[in-house]
Amino acid sequence: MNLGLFNRMNLKESSESKGMYSEWTSLSLAIQQSGEDTQSVLEKFGLPVSKDITVALVHQLASNLGITQPAEPSHLSSDKDVQWCMEVICFGLSLSLTEHEAIKDCVNVYCEWLTALLPNPKICVPQPILDDPNLYSRKMISHLHYLFVPRKGEGFDTIHRQAVFCHRVLRTLQQIAHESKMLERDTWEALLLFLLAINDTLLSPPTVKDDVADQLCERVLSVLFEIWLIACAQCFPAPPLWKTLRESCMNWRHRVALVEQWNRVNLALTSKVLVFMYGPSFPELKIGEDDIIPPGMSNDCIAQSWYRFLNTIGNPVSLTKPKVISQTQKFLQFAISTDGIADPCQHSCLQALPLIFLKAIKGIAGQVDAFLGIAQPIWWDSVVTGAWGSTDKNKNATPVTHSPTPPTQRRLAKSFSVTQSSATKGIRYSFFLFLLLVLVVIVH
């Protein structure tokens, strides 16, 4: 074994990971161990017996959901009934993907039961869940982690089926985050920790083409950030959650989609910050058709979220350094367990780092331009949707006419005349001051 790699695996904390939340407790260990404390009692029995029980029971439970035939009220009338069935469903979600029908039934049952958190729950939801929807929903959400765990040795079609089930769960959680009026703080935290855990499970390992993580990468990240923003408006996350988000994102920096979604959130928040800082007459930052910022978000909440999201991926300069990006437990484990690999920075997925760095810097540049009042609509396509090679839009785009920098709306009124040369110097000086400010915010 490479002794140097072994020692690096046991490093507790790098200087880069300390960041702005260094005095707060991290929940990273909790998300890495997610699922271990929710194992089903059926794990204690032989697989054939447990599987037969699960397949028969979940098929019966799914039959009255109203998916293939009219829905019926649930026959589960006590907490004991529901708890026992949930033990079985929990086991079913961890089955091999060859049992895709049973897994589909498990997903359908939990997605329908989770409607207990919505204003109009489905008729098939058991009464005990309706009586205490937050408690049961937290348990169901924790069980659903098993669905997102990659299975080894599966073919492309089977992996695609798993991705379809995962999409169903993510849609349900999005609906709950948008529409529920009864989520308690503990449920918000459980939901955010679940999203962090599934992202970490899928995205922390080095990229493997066409595996389930590759298929779900953009989707799980977008849902994480979208629901996180809703939580900011409804029940602002505590500092340990923000610290865990930052630590987790720094483990996913080898994924192109992370920087694209980071840019998406930053630009969306920046567009709101500009409005309340400089008013409606300031040049607008156009961010595309999907406005991911919740309508009820206060100005203070927007400003806090903007600053915290800027710090989420650490120092962007690190994206140019494979040795830094690969300094994670999953990369080090890969290097130790793979013959012929002397160092984790040799993994082929790190060849995408120049593109990732370029996207990150273009995103920062887009924010700088927005604050200077010269933002271009092309930024949204290039840094969020990843349309680097698509030049047709760029060719047909209307040439951008740059407004004075900084724009008139942001200039201080002066009672004395200023020569053209001194005005130009002031413009350049203000630009470099602002650029320096943004970089300092991100790096520290």
What would your notes on this structure say?
With 444 residues, this protein is mainly α. The protein is built from 19 helices and no strands. Helix 3 crosses helix 4. About 10% of the residues have low confidence.
Helix-strand layout with pairing:
Layout: H1 3-9, H2 28-32, H3 47-62, H4 79-92, H5 100-113, H6 127-131, H7 133-143, H8 156-179, H9 185-203, H10 212-234, H11 239-251, H12 256-278, H13 299-310, H14 322-325, H15 329-337, H16 353-371, H17 378-385, H18 392-396, H19 420-443
Helix pairs in contact: 1-15, 3-4, 3-5, 5-8, 7-9, 8-10, 9-10, 9-11, 10-12, 12-13, 12-16, 12-17, 16-17, 16-19
Mean pLDDT: 83
Tell me the radius of gyration.
25 Å
Low-confidence stretches: 9-13, 388-403, 411-433
CA distance, first residue to last residue: 36 Å
- The overall strand count is 0
Helicity, as a percent range: 55-70%
Helix-strand pattern, N to C? HHHHHHHHHHHHHHHHHHH
Q: Outline, from the CA principal axes?
A: globular
- Beta-strand residue percentage: under 5%
> Structural class of the secondary elements?
mainly alpha
- Quaternary state of this entry equals single chain
Count up the helices.
Answer: 19
Question: Sheet with the most strands?
Answer: none
Domain Ral GTPase-activating protein subunit alpha/beta N-terminal: 159-280
Organism: Acanthoscelides obtectus
GO molecular function, one term: GTPase activator activity
Protein name: Ral GTPase-activating protein subunit alpha/beta N-terminal domain-containing protein
